[in-house]
Amino acid sequence: MSDQPTNEELVRRARGGDIAAFGSLYDRTVRLVRSVAADAGRDAAEDVTHETFLRAFRTLGSLRDPARFAPWLVGIARLVVLEQRRVRRFEPLPERGPQTAEADAQADDDAEELLRLVARLPEEERLAVRFFFLNQRSIEETARLLNRSRSGTYAVLQRAKGRLARWLEECGVSR
């Protein structure tokens, strides 16, 4: 049996004022939140992560089931991502300088297109791609985060890769 406290125990301690317990919750879940926050875009992901944990800390008392801390936190992160998207719709786009090399510009465009397509994937596939490929998590960690077996996780990744390959071909992006 592990000496590590469960998330449920850490939530109870954090509710009682134990800041270190909330720090442990942060350490355990920050990668999960960053994966969800990546849907806000490269520039906004860190802000989304910070805002998510700030809201979680402030509203920890509203969590009904302390054992469900991680899913609750993901829900907060999704809400913050949606809010960021709404805000960005009303901000002017930054100007790009004319000195950008054509090859660099094409590579940037292709990478942005791929990230846009990843964001269109069904949620489980999107999270699997983000955990495994973009955050370079092991298959075991990815499976644990998705609550799937290794083979089930590989199947999800295969579906996502197939879908992305079709979409990239339709967009004319070279692989």
TrEMBL record:
Pfam families: Sigma70_r2, Sigma70_r4_2. GO terms for molecular function: DNA binding; sigma factor activity. SUPFAM superfamilies: Sigma2 domain of RNA polymerase sigma factors, Sigma3 and sigma4 domains of RNA polymerase sigma factors. GO terms for biological process: DNA-templated transcription initiation. The keyword Nucleus does not apply. Residues 112-164 form the RNA polymerase sigma factor 70 region 4 type domain. Keywords: Sigma factor, Transcription, Transcription regulation. Residues 25-89 form the RNA polymerase sigma-70 region domain. Belongs to the sigma-70 factor family. ECF subfamily. This is RNA polymerase sigma factor SigM. The gene is sigM_2.
